[in-house]
Structures are given as C-alpha cells and as structure tokens.
Design brief:
heterodimer; A: 298 residues; mainly alpha; MetI-like fold; 2 domains; 2 strands; 68% helix; B: 335 residues; 0% strand; disordered N terminus
Amino acid sequence: MRTAEGYRKLIWKAKIRWLIGNIIVYSIVCIPLVPIILMYGWLIAQAFSGVCISSLIPQKLTLDNFYFLTGPIYWGGTPLYKSYWPLVRNTLLLALGTTGLVVAITSLAGYAISRFEFKGRDPLLKSVVVVHSIPGVLFLIALMYVLNTIGLYGKGFLTLLSVIIIKAGLESPMYTWMLKGFFDSVPWELEWAALVDGCSRFAAWRKVVMPLIFPGIAAVSIFAFLSGWGEYLLVLTYITDRKWYTLSLALSELTYQFKHVDYGMLAAFSLLYLLPAMVFFLLTQKYLMTMRIVAYKG
Amino acid sequence: MSKKFSNLLRGYVIRPKASISISGLGGFKSFLKEKSRTFFVIAFLTPFLAALTIMYGLPCALSVLMSFTDMGLSFELHFLNPLLKNYYTIFHVADPRVPVVAQTTILYVGCTLLINAGFSLVLGVLTAYCIRNENVASVLRLLWFLPRMTPVIIYALLWLWFTDPTYGPLSIVSSWIGLKGVRWLLDKPYSQLLMILVNGYIGASWGMVIYVSSIKTIPLEIIYAAKADGATDWDVIRRIILPLLKWPILFVTSWQTLSLLGSYVEILAIWDGYSYTSGVEVWSLFTYHTAFEGYRFGYSAALAIIMATIALILVAIYFKVFGFKRMLEPSRIEV
C-alpha cells in the first residue's frame, strides 16, 4: 500500500520529468534560432542607429540612414545611384510581371492537365519533375547564349523584360504541379452542370472553376511575387544597364562598397526591401502546408 | 474511390458518348465538339509547353552542344578537336581546381543534408508532437521560415554583419572562447562550417513542413492506444512516429540531395570574390564563375552537363525506388 506521501512524491517526480522534457524540447527548437533572431533584430536596431552596433540596442537614434529615399546615394563623392525609386520600380516590374505570367501559364495548364486525358499526359508530368532536378546553372549559361544570339543581352528594358519571361518560364512547371492539385480537388460535377446548362468550356473554366480555386491562385501568386521580389541571380547575370538595376542588385553593390563603413545605411535599405516580403510572408503562412516540391530549392 | 472509377470521372470530357446522351447532339455536332476539345487542350497547354521547351528543352540541348566547343566571349560555336576535350580536361584532372571543388561539394552536400533532412526531422517531430500548444508551435515554425522568405541578398548581408571581424557577435563570442582573430568567412575550416550553417538555416524549414504535415495525418487513435497502454512520449516517437515517417524521410533526403547539388546562390552572395580561397567553392558555383567571370562558356557547359548527368541518374534511381506517385505525395502516411 502506498501512503499519501508516496503518491505526492510520484506526482512531483512526474512534474519534474515533464519540466525537464519541456526544457530539452524548447532548447532544441529555440537555441539554434538565437542567431536568426539576433540578425533580424539587429537589422531593425541598426537602421535607426547613428553608429555601427554589435547588439540589439540602438545607439544615437537617427533617421539619417534613410537619406537615400530623398536623394542620390553617394560613394566618395560620386553618385552610385541618382535615386532610390527607379530601383523600386524595376523590382516591382520584375515581381509583378513574373507573377502575372506565372498565374496565366499555370492556371491554363494546370486545368488542362487536371481535367483532360491526352496522349503524352503522363510523360509530360514526369518530364516536369525531371527537368526541375537539373541544376539551374546549366540554364543560366545556355540562356546567356540565347539572349546574346537574339540580341537581347545588355539592352536595358528589353533585357529586364526577357528576365521576367525567363523567370516565369523557369518557375511555371512546378507551380503548374501545385495548381493541378487544387484543380483536382474541385468536383467535376460543377463544371458538368455548367456545360449542360449551355456554358462554353472556356466560360466553365473562367466562371465556375477559377473562383473555386482562388486559394490556389493566391498561393501561387504570393510565392511567385516573393521569388521575383528577391530574385538576385538572373538580374546579376543578365542586367548590365544601371538604369534597370533592381533592389537586390543595388543592395549587393552597396554591400560591397559600404561594408565595414556604413552598416546603418545598408540596414535601412535592407529593412525597406524586406518589408514587402515580410508582409506577403505573413499572408502566406496559411499556405505553407501547400508548399511541396515548389519550394524545394535551397 | 477505385482507380478505374476516378479515371472514368476525370475523362468525362473526352467521352463524347456521355455528352451526346446528355445534350442530345447529333453525330456531326459531336465531331465538331471533339475538334473543339482538341483545340481547347492545345490552347490551354501552349504557353506551358512553350515555357517548357524554350526555358528547359532548348537550353539542355544547347549546353550539350556548347560543351563540345571552346566558346568564349565571342559566342561562336567552334567545335573542339578532339570533340570531348572539355571532358578530358575535367576527368584527367588537367584542371587542378576540379578535385578541390569536387571535395568541397561532397562535404557541402553531405553535411548540409544532415541539417536539411536530419535536424528538420527533429524540428518537425518536436513542433508537431512534443509542443502541444499549437500557437506556440506555429510561431516557432514561422521563425524557422524567416530565412527562406528573406531575399537572398539581405540574408547575405545579415551573415556578413554576424561574422564581421569588428562588430559581429560571432567574432566577439568566439574571442571569449579562445578563437581570437579568426576570420570566420575566410579561414578554412570555419568558413566551411559557415557555408553549411548558412544553407542549413534555409533548408531546414522545407523538411520541417513536410514532416509536420505527415505527422498530422497519423490517426490519433494509434497514439491514444499506445498512451493508454502506458507508452511514454519517447516511446510514441520511436515506435510509432518514426517508422511511419519512413517515406517522408526518404523523400526529403532525396529531394534535398538534388537541390543541394544545384544550390550556390547564398554562397555566391556571401563569399563574392573569395570563395575559392575560403574553401567554399562548390561545383555549381565553380561552373558559374567559369562562365560569367572566366567567360569560358564551353568549358562551363561541360561542367554543368556533368552535374546534370549526376542529378538525372539520381532521379532515375528515385523513380525506381519510390514509384512516381510516392515521389510527389510525400505526406501520405501508409498505416
């Protein structure tokens, strides 16, 4: 027979074991997060600090770091960039253009692949997986030759336009996969009913199915926008005209020049660049679970 | 739903008999309808097929061609004699950088895989099963997602500050433990450790999401039954969750291997200009540098083709091991 004292001891033991277990669990998940939290915290603190800091406490609070919003960005007397806003325009063009193209391509193809059986459907699906596994640098090199041959390399706006098309083309196969899953989940009876009532097939797609897969379209557009907004490699490789630089390209150049000297301006620049991405990221979090192969890169 | 039945459902549009009996159309009209269906499919697929051909097919064919040439800045397809000279250079180690780069790549893929597939499994199990408060768990998952959602060049800047010799916390902390004067980005074992961590922070979240969504599909009855029989949490994880995660683990490991073979953007952004001397020049980055800094497009195409061949062999193996369906539906638990 156990006494009340014995039971109390047992309960205490269980409580201590629970506490230790929780401490272990939380430390495994949280301790590796410390550098990440430090970095993002620093970015915010540094953007408003007058001197370079190595902690999260801002010193000499100031807004001077944001001077680039109203004037040119100087380096040793020579203006590197006349203004900040063309960079924003170019980045927006790239992000929105990619999103528009990707949504157009994937919503058409995803529907056709989901609803119709045709010769070569399965090989097509398999080829999407296969081509996506090939390292991206191969396409970068070959497309450089293509761009140069058709005379679109180093042509200012036309080059930006071709970067948009290249980016959308490279990303659409995997987004098509993702959207096909959404189309599969719409019951076909709905379209059938529309067709029987005299709807054309295009109208059935446009007016019946598309509104139903809005969450899928939203997820695809948000992913495509984020990826276009942060795109670095394609613009670094293909865009040579400073008038058409994007925020990522400008930031990489500024980092090269200002590192060790003016972290404040870099942090302010990054913070503004990061904000739209973070807003979109918070909007996406409910779609995180729909990320499958789409976002496997990295 | 049986497979046959679902196929029947999906193919409803192409079965003219069904549509005739419903709409009561005559033979000629059904012929027209069949034509319009073909037209419809072609119209819907054309942009997609164009993207696939121009952005994927054409470059693949072109780089095979380019790998037989010594194409430089003049962009002339001038074939080499012997034709496979670029490949000889690589395989006969006429280029002393190739073995170094290959070693770095193996180190990079192997070690980062431990984080991307191994540590992400720990994260997935802990945030999906051990942390019972769903709000806390999802906030933690969001924090782990931050690096992936950040534009790569900002991520690079954050690491540059973190490892800055004067202001960076890493340098300050490491000087406390006797590593004074270590240049984390430049000195060899440390820079390689950073290379693995930088990519691990981005890669961990993807595996985590796959594992979490797999664990969420495990029927709770199984876990309740085990608990009623006196199993501890550790028993549940070891005897129920991990065995059921067999396919997701294989899936994450295999896709991450492929993606790591091709990834180099973060390294390019952080170690711009001194990646080779810091020992972080992976194969893809070496290919990129050969093409866009050395302007040896022919040679770099050969380097890329070798990497692509390895990736394709891996994919073929995966298709054999997984079957097509499992390769794309990682989170389905087979109880």
